[in-house]
Write a structure and sequence with these properties.
The structure is a single chain. By secondary structure, the protein is α/β, with parallel strands linked by helices. It folds into two domains: about 40 residues; about 200 residues, Beta-carbonic Anhydrase, Chain A (3-Layer(aba) Sandwich), CATH 3.40.1050. The protein contains eleven helices and five strands. Strands 2-1-3-4-5 form a five-stranded mixed β-sheet, sandwiched between helices. Strand 1, helix 5 and strand 2 form a beta-alpha-beta unit. Helix 7 crosses helix 8 and helix 9 packs across helix 10. The chain is globular, with a radius of gyration of 20 Å.
């Protein structure tokens, strides 16, 4: 099926499912449209600015507790079963306290999510990040570090003391070495936090300069945002690259 056919089919699915939900709502005593229908009817953000705004709105709901839990019902599951068009890609840490879908209050089919220790990156991870922007026009990538990152702390200690970590954990250490070196040059009261932020900044910059993603960034079709999550407050702080 060509691109026009896929878009037409998706529009029919969205209209059919949302229309059915509206019809059901008309039979209710209050006449309110169910939240599932509202979520299904929401347009997929097609620009970096709109995608970024959608994520940050979701994070504000996460912080306040006024969650919408969008795109998380059987109708949504049926809608995306044959095709996906996520509006964002998030590269975050494996930390159990930092689940991107939850802290951005998103749902099924909304995000591509890659998670590695300390946002460590290699060709396989880079390829995974590239997948959405290069195959389906995903307009936003977020590199998301976080407060009190255990992977960064372990790598910092290993590099500082010259003591390799066991097994493949040492691969994470080596991937984070540039961030460690930058943190050493910067100094500061909390070198681990400095290193965690440096890792986000370096990774986001590398993705923006990527030979395949760079042209998309240059023409405004893609934004690569570096961000930092507070375990204490739940808020996402933008470190750089936010679309205007």
């Amino acid at each position: 099926m060509d691109e026009a056919g896929r878009l037409e089919r998706r529009a029919l699915l969205v209209g059919g499912v949302a229309g059915a939900a509206v019809a059901l709502a008309g039979c209710s005593s209050k006449g309110a449209v169910p939240s599932a229908a509202t979520a299904l009817a929401r347009a997929r953000p097609s620009t970096p600015g709109a995608a970024f705004a959608r994520l940050m709105e979701g994070n504000r709901r996460w912080v306040s507790g006024a969650l919408h839990h969008p795109d998380r019902d059987p109708n949504r599951r049926q809608l995306v079963a044959q095709q996906q068009e996520p509006f964002g890609a998030v590269l975050s840490c494996i930390d159990s306290r930092v689940p991107p879908e939850l802290l951005f209050d998103t749902g099924l089919g909304d995000l591509y999510v890659m998670r590695t220790g300390g946002e460590a990156i290699d060709p396989v991870v880079t390829g995974s990040v590239e997948y959405g922007p290069m195959t389906s026009g995903t307009p936003l990538i977020v590199v998301l570090g976080h407060q009190r990152c255990g992977a960064v702390e372990a790598a910092h200690r290993s590099l500082r003391d010259g003591r390799p970590l066991p097994g493949n954990l040492q691969a994470i250490v080596q991937a984070l070495r540039p961030a460690y070196e930058l943190a050493v040059r910067k100094g500061g009261a909390d070198p681990v936090e400095t290193m965690a932020r440096a890792q986000v900044t370096l990774t986001a910059s590398a993705l923006r300069a990527n030979g395949d993603l760079g042209p998309l960034v240059s023409r405004g079709a893609l934004a690569v945002v570096g961000a930092y999550y507070s375990l204490d407050t739940g808020a996402v702080e933008v470190l750089g690259g936010a679309p205007s």
